[in-house]
Write a structure and sequence with these properties.
Elements (H helix, E strand, L loop, with lengths): L6 H15 L3 H14 L4 H13 L3 H14 L4 H13 L3 H14 L4 H13 L3 H14 L4 H14 L2 H14 L9 H16 L3 H11 L6 H14 L3 H14 L4 H10 L7 H14 L5 H4 L1 H4 L2 H18 L4 H5 L6 H20 L12 H13 L6 H14 L4 H13 L3 H14 L4 H13 L3 H8 L10 H8 L3 H13 L3 H20 L1 H11 L2 H12 L5 H19 L14 H32 L4 H11 L7 H4 L4 H15 L4 H13 L3 H15 L3 H17 L5 H11 L1
Pfam families: NatA_aux_su, TPR_16
Keywords: Coiled coil, Receptor, Repeat, TPR repeat
Protein name: NMDA receptor-regulated protein 1
C-alpha cells in the first residue's frame, strides 16, 4: 500500500518538483530527504530524488533508486514517468517510450506525459505514433490552435498531405473571429498550408490560395517569391516577369531573381544582346548593385566579354574590393576568360603607371587591388604559377606593408609551394598586423596546426576564447563546437603519432553531431508555441540529413583510417601516444608526446588561473562546473587502448556510408573495413558503389584486385548463398 503524505509534506513534495524544474538541485535533494525521513517508502518522492541525482551526474544510483520506487509503488504514474525521463536522458528512447506509455495508461488525462511521449515519438521519427499522440492531445484541448497545427504537422511528416491540409482547414472554419493583421501564428499557419498544397503538386490551387488567403501575411518576401515561382511554373510568363522585376526592385543584389527573370522571358543562351540589355537596364537603375554588373560575365563571349570584364575590373580595382577574384574565379572553366582576366589586370596596371594621376592614399585601391588580383590569379590551382604569384604579392606588400589581405595571400603561396613552416610563420605575421580580428586569428591557428604546432595554435586561439572557462581555451573551443579546430587538431596529433589525442578529437566531433541531434528536443514544443512552423519543418528535414555535413565526413573518414592503421599495425602503436614500441626512436617520440601533453595542460592551467584572478568570486561555481564536466578520459588514452579498432570504426563508418554514398573516399574506407571484418557482401557493395562513381580511380582498381584475391582464397568456405551472390558480382 503506497504511503500517503500529510498536507505539509505534500507542499514540500511540490517544492521538490519546483526545485528540479528550476535546477536548484541541492535544495530539491534536501526537501526530498525531509519527506523520506518520515515516509521512507514514498515512491513519488523516491522518483523525484532519482531524477535530481541523475541531473547531478549520478546516473547509476538514480536508476537503482527509480527501480526501488517502482517496487514500492508500481501503479504510480509519476514513478513510471520519471523512469521514462531517466531512459530518455540516457538516450534509450525505446525503453523511455515504453515507460511513458505505461504511465499514460495509469493517468490517461496527464497532458505532461502525453506531451513528453509525443516529443519522443517525433524525435525518433515514429510518425505513426506521433499522429496518435497528437490526436489524443487535440481531443483533450481542442481550443488550442497549436494542437491543430501539431496534428497537421504529424500527418505531413507521415506523408499524408491531404489529411494535413484538412486539419488546418477544419480549424480555420471553426474560428468565427477574424484574426488580427499582426497575428504572426495565423500568418505562418496560412503560409504553411500553402506549402502543403504546393507539395501535393496543385500549383494552380496554391497560387489561388496565396492570392486570396495569404495577401495579408506578415512575411511579404515569402509571398512575393512563392507567387513568382507559381506563375513561372504555370507558364504565365508576363505576370511572372512582373513578379520577378518587383523582387529585383526589392533586392537588386539577389542573383537568383535575375536568372529566373531571364528564364521567364524565354531568352536563349545564344541571345547575348537581349540578356545583356536586361542587366544594363538594372545596372543603370541601381548603380551600386554588383550582381547586375557581374552576372553578364557568365554568358558574354569574345569582345563583349572583354569590354564588360574591363569595366567591371576597373570599377572593382578603383574601389579596392578584396573579393574581386573570389567573385570571378568560377569563370576560369572557360579558357578564353581565364586568359582575358589577368591580361585586363595587367592593362589596368599599365594605365595606372602611364597616367599622371595622383596615387590614392589608400594603397588597397587602384594599383594595390590589381596586384592583389594577379597574385591570387597565379596562386589559383587552375592558373598556378607560384613564382609569379610571389612576385606580385611582394609588390603589393611594398605598396602597403600593413595589409592583412596581402600578407595572408603570401602565406597561402608558401603553403602551395609545400613550405608549411614558412606559411605558418607568414600567416602569424599577418595576424600580428591586426590582433583584434578573429578571422585572421583562426587562419593563423589553422596554419600552425597544419605545421603540427598544436600547443602554439591553442595559445593563439586562446587570445579570443573566454578567459573564465574552466579547462582553458580547449574547453571553450569544445563548448563553442569549433569543429574545424577539433578536426585540424586531431589530424595534427595523428601526424605527430599521438593516436590517443587524435581519436579524442574525432570522437568529440562525433559527439557534437549527437548534441545537434538532441537539440531538436527543445524545438518540438518551442516552434509550435511560437508559431514557427515552416522553420520547424525545415529543421526536421535538415536534421534527417545531418551527417551529410562535410565536417562530419572529414572527421569520420580520418577516424576510420586511423582505426584501420591501428588494426593493421597493432604492435607498432602504443595506446597512450601511438608511437613505435621499440628502439631509441620510440623513446624519443614518447618523450616528445609527454612534453606536448604537459605543455597543453600547463596552457590550460594558466588560463584557469587568469580567470580566477579576474573573478575570484566565481571559484566555487567553477569547481562545481568542473565536477559536472569532468571527462574520465581527457587525453583519449582509453580510446587508444581499444581491443576492437574495426568495431569502433563502424560507429563512424555507418553514418558516413548512409548519408554520403556518392563520395568515393567513403566507399573506399567502407571496403577496407568490411574486407578486414570478413563481411564480403558488404565489401562487394562498397566496391560496386565506388566503381559506379569512378571506375578509373587507381584505388578502385587496386581494391577490385584485392577483392578477387581474397574471395578466391575463402570462397569455398562461405555459405552457398553468399558464394552465389559473389560469383554473380564477379562474373
Amino acid at each position: 500500500m503506497p504511503q500517503v503524505l500529510s498536507t505539509k509534506e505534500a507542499n514540500l513534495f511540490r517544492q521538490v518538483i519546483r526545485d528540479y524544474e528550476e535546477k536548484r538541485y541541492r535544495a530539491g535533494l534536501k526537501a526530498a530527504e525531509q519527506i523520506l525521513k518520515r515516509n521512507p517508502k514514498h515512491g513519488d518522492t523516491m522518483s523525484m530524488k532519482a531524477l535530481i541525482m541523475n541531473a547531478q551526474g549520478k546516473t547509476e544510483e538514480a536508476f537503482n533508486l527509480a527501480k526501488e520506487a517502482l517496487k514500492v509503488d508500481f501503479k504510480s504514474h509519476i514513478c513510471w514517468h520519471v523512469y521514462g525521463i531517466l531512459y530518455r536522458t540516457n538516450k534509450n528512447f525505446e525503453e523511455a517510450i515504453k515507460a511513458y506509455k505505461f504511465a499514460l495508461k495509469l493517468e490517461p488525462e496527464s497532458q505532461q506525459i502525453q506531451r513528453d511521449l509525443a516529443i519522443l515519438q517525433v524525435q525518433t521519427r515514429d510518425y505513426e505514433g506521433y499522429v496518435q499522440s497528437r490526436f489524443a492531445m487535440l481531443k483533450a484541448r481542442p481550443q488550442l490552435r497549436q494542437n491543430w497545427t501539431a496534428l497537421a504537422i504529424a500527418h505531413h511528416l507521415e506523408g499524408n498531405l491531404q489529411e494535413a491540409e484538412r486539419i488546418l482547414t477544419t480549424y480555420e472554419k471553426s474560428v468565427s473571429a477574424v484574426p488580427a493583421k499582426t497575428d504572426f501564428e495565423n500568418s505562418e499557419a496560412l503560409l504553411y498550408k500553402n506549402s502543403i498544397i504546393a507539395e501535393q503538386g496543385e500549383t494552380e490551387r496554391a497560387l489561388e490560395h496565396l492570392e486570396q488567403e495569404c495577401k495579408k501575411c506578415l512575411d511579404r518576401l515569402a509571398v512575393m517569391e512563392l507567387r513568382a515561382r507559381y506563375l513561372a511554373k504555370l507558364g504565365r510568363k508576363e505576370e511572372a516577369e512582373t513578379a520577378y522585376r518587383a523582387l529585383i526592385d526589392r533586392n537588386p543584389d539577389h542573383t537568383d531573381y535575375y536568372k529566373r527573370l531571364v528564364e521567364v522571358l524565354d531568352l536563349t543562351a545564344d541571345d547575348e544582346a537581349a540578356q545583356k540589355a536586361i542587366f544594363d537596364e538594372y545596372s543603370a537603375k541601381y548603380p551600386r548593385s554588383d550582381a547586375a554588373r557581374r552576372l553578364p560575365l557568365d554568358f558574354l563571349t569574345g569582345d563583349e566579354f572583354r569590354s564588360a570584364a574591363k569595366a567591371y575590373l576597373t570599377l572593382m580595382f578603383n574601389k579596392g574590393v578584396p573579393s574581386t577574384f573570389a567573385n570571378l574565379k568560377h569563370l576560369y572553366s572557360d579558357s578564353y576568360k581565364k586568359e582575358t582576366l589577368p591580361s585586363l589586370a595587367e592593362e589596368y596596371l599599365q594605365e595606372v603607371k602611364n597616367s599622371n594621376a595622383e596615387a590614392s592614399s589608400d594603397s588597397s585601391k587602384g594599383e594595390g587591388a590589381a596586384l592583389f588580383f594577379l597574385a591570387q590569379h597565379y596562386n589559383y590551382y587552375m592558373s598556378r604559377d607560384l613564382a609569379k604569384a610571389l612576385e606580385y604579392v611582394e609588390k603589393a606588400i611594398q605598396l602597403d606593408p600593413k595589409s592583412v589581405d596581402f600578407q595572408m595571400t603570401k602565406a597561402r603561396i608558401y603553403k602551395h609551394q609545400g613550405d608549411i613552416a614558412k606559411a605558418a610563420e607568414a600567416m602569424d605575421q599577418a595576424r600580428l598586423l591586426d590582433t583584434k580580428d578573429r578571422y585572421i586569428n583562426t587562419k593563423a591557428a589553422k596554419y600552425q596546426l597544419r605545421n603540427n604546432e598544436n600547443e602554439k595554435a591553442l595559445n593563439t586561439l586562446g587570445l579570443f576564447t573566454r578567459a573564465e572557462t574552466v579547462g582553458g581555451p580547449l574547453a571553450d573551443l569544445i563548448d563553442m563546437q569549433a569543429m574545424w579546430f577539433l578536426t585540424e587538431d586531431g589530424e595534427a596529433w595523428q601526424r605527430r603519432g599521438n593516436v590517443a589525442l587524435a581519436l579524442k578529437r574525432y570522437h568529440t566531433v562525433f559527439n557534437i553531431f549527437d548534441i545537434w541531434q538532441e537539440d531538436q528536443f527543445d524545438f518540438h514544443s518551442f516552434s509550435l508555441r511560437k508559431g514557427q512552423i515552416r522553420a520547424y519543418m525545415d529543421m526536421i528535414r535538415w536534421e534527417d540529413k545531418l551527417r551529410e555535413h562535410p565536417f562530419y565526413f572529414r572527421a569520420a573518414l580520418d577516424a576510420v583510417n586511423l582505426y584501420l592503421s591501428m588494426y593493421d599495425k597493432p604492435e607498432g602503436l602504443n595506446g597512450a601516444n601511438g608511437n613505435n614500441a621499440n628502439g631509441d626512436d620510440a623513446a624519443e617520440k614518447k618523450k616528445a608526446a609527454k612534453k606536448a601533453k604537459k605543455e597543453a595542460q600547463k596552457a590550460e592551467k594558466e588560463a584557469a588561473e587568469r580567470a580566477a584572478k579576474q573573478n575570484p568570486n566565481k571559484a566555487q561555481k567553477d569547481k562545481e562546473e568542473e565536477v559536472k564536466k569532468k571527462d574520465d578520459d581527457p587525453n583519449g588514452v582509453k580510446l587508444a587502448e581499444t581491443k576492437d579498432p574495426l568495431g569502433d570504426a563502424m560507429k563512424f563508418l555507418e553514418p558516413l556510408l548512409q548519408f554520403s554514398p556518392k563520395n568515393i573516399e567513403g566507399q573506399i574506407a567502407g571496403f577496407e573495413v568490411y574486407i578486414r571484418r570478413k563481411k564480403y557482401l558488404l565489401a562487394a557493395k562498397c566496391l560496386k558503389a565506388a566503381q559506379v562513381l569512378d571506375k578509373d580511380h587507381p584505388k578502385v582498381q587496386e581494391l577490385a584486385a584485392t577483392m578477387q584475391k581474397t574471395i578466391g582464397d575463402v570462397l569455398e568456405s562461405l555459405p552457398p548463398k553468399v558464394q552465389e551472390v559473389l560469383k554473380a558480382e564477379f562474373a
